[in-house]
Amino acid sequence: MATRTETPQTPRIPASRGGRFLGFLAVGATGLVINQLAFWMLTSVFGLYYLWGFLLATQFSTAWNFVLLERYVFDGRREGRWARLGWYALMNNIWNVASAPVMYLITSGLSVPSLWANWFVITGMTVVRFAISNRLIWGERSSSGIDAAGVVPSTRQGTWSYDIHGIVLISSQTPLPELERFQVPALAGVPDIEVTVSNRGFGGLRRNVTVTEQDGEVTYIEHLGRFGFAAKIDVETLSRIQVSKLLRRSPHVAYTNVVEPVVRWLMVRKGYILAHAACLQVDGHGVLITARTDTGKTTTCLKSIKEQGSGFVSDDMVIIDPEGRALSYPKPLTISSHTLHAVKGAPMPTTTRAALQIQGRIHSKFGRSVGMAIGNVNLPVATMSALVQMAVPPPKFHVDRLIPEAELVTSLDLDRLVVIERGDALLRELDEDTAFEILSDNTEDAYGFPPYPRIESSFTDGYIDAERAIRRKVIGRVEAVLLRTPDRNWFERLPQLAAGMAVPFGVEVVRVDETGDVMLDLTGVGADLEPVETEGQVIALEMERPAAPESIASRLAQLSAEEAEEVERALSGALALLQKVSDILDEQSDREAPAVSGLMASVRSLRDARITQGKG
Question: How far apart are CA 200 and CA 287, in angstroms?
Fold first, then answer.
């Protein structure tokens, strides 16, 4: 009687994500060896130029890794194997093209040997490649009912409804996480914007990005056609948006790259502007804070809310009507590792904080600048962005998750516009034209990523003047200042700026230059004062720098470590107390305020001198 022999099962890595990641790392380690050997042979033996060797060596390691991943790490069924190989190879080659400029920078700019540079670049991509492989290429629906892209299958054919202050109603076949605070069970009327998800009409592969405008619709399609980033917008009414299915799996890209520009220009048609600025309620005053992208608006908001009790209106975008009334647009805050320092003690798991170290760097200012740079060449940059955000979602948190006690303000009247910059200490009152141009430029700075630069003219035709007119009217109703500091502590000045600049910081004013700009030493100490008359409305005080800080610094240096820490704590407490005194005097009498402000400047400089010495 014949006996049946059981075919041994191929050993598998445990089904947990951690187990798959370890297996992915093990396979990747062997792939690195293959890649380095191939790179060495191509460059050293055959004399190939190192960038070409970098690109070709990956083809060898890609084939090697795919076989091992199929067999030992993921569920490599026979069905769809060639499709998986195609997507895996495409992912690796897209990363290679994107990383070639980084490779060149490391080797040529930093003089790192090409073998080491190749190793750094390949290793740096490991985490992102695993996320894409695990969630997209080999991903399956889990028992929890959520698929690999984080979309609940039972709601795939449903719609999400958003009501933005009754001004714009949106019905969408994909979730728009940035508009989560505006989500409603059902719309009260006909939607102003309908977002549909379909690949119909987007075609297949092509050599170049395609932009067409016909019958009142503009269509943007990248190299992969319906398989990549593609969108169609009714630019006559702004009422219909069609996005490719890829963007349902990357809803952050769907919103930021497609939906938000449409919302911006629909707001203009309804008599509002969507300004690139943060907005806080500081001591009862409406303060608009604008800056270039990644300057520090989020950090400023978080510190002001946590340490000064300011009310939160918006962090990145704010709706403003012609009368200077601001309406909240509370998108989740994009958090980086340095931003977290502004909310120490925020209720956040350790694993989430650890993940932020990776997410923050991938979605950092440098990461976006690389994306913007490669967007100028013939590459599917928006598709690449969608894939990255599918694999590693951007680190976004609502403000009340970071600061549970934060007060959410729905609307308020604007009193001040504060432009923040980093650099040498300076406070300058801005004229209306300058403030208008800065706010205009900063708003445009938020819309530089594809496809907007290629389809901008289709949105703005006939409406750019209307937006500028509303913005001009708003600027005419507020006081505007430029606040520049060498650190990120703009929030310390917000209460004083919110109250007005009739006498700008008293003894902290150093001089008024020939153009009438108020020049401030934001770290200065008190001194003999002399009033300076100016032709403008700003009253400034001029002072001479005494030699006292040097002697004080030398005396601080003689303290023991314990004494110095005690002094630092005392100075910080005195500074907090003086701030409270200043707030009270601001309400009672303007005459004493400059003297208190001078004391605050002196105490602050002493504290900063002690901190600086401690770092030294």
Answer: 46
